[in-house]
Write a structure and sequence with these properties.
23% strand, 47% helix, 4 strands, elongated, alpha+beta
């Protein structure tokens, strides 16, 4: 009678090498996120580029590139969570929220 190896118990690993490897990878990912947590300057640079790229008018692009960074930094509040940051831009009654991570990924979470 042939045995079907699919139904036979498999030997278990001892030593925990897989667990240690997983912890090392997790630690490296945490360090990567912490080191690349974006600053307010990173956020304002991103927004200036975004607004400039969206503008069809050369004059508007020039104004955004010249004055935009200071205005955005003044209108932005950053909350630092070590691995990522949240940014809230407020202009009067309008408000937009973003999550920033990895030194340049900004995800808008509310309009």
């Amino acid at each position: 009678m042939e045995s079907n190896s699919m139904f036979e118990p498999q030997p278990t690993r001892k030593g925990g090498k897989g667990r240690v490897g997983s912890l090392v990878v997790l630690l490296l990912v945490v360090i990567l996120f912490a080191v690349t947590n974006p600053s307010t300057t990173d956020f304002s640079d991103h927004m200036v580029k975004k607004f400039s790229d969206e503008s069809d008018n050369v004059l508007t692009r020039g104004i955004v590139n010249t004055l935009g960074r200071g205005y955005i930094e003044a209108a932005t509040q950053r909350s630092n969570y070590v691995l990522f940051s949240t940014f809230t831009m407020t202009d009067g009654e309008l408000s937009a929220k973003y999550i920033g991570l990895l030194n340049g990924i900004f995800i808008q979470t509310s309009p």
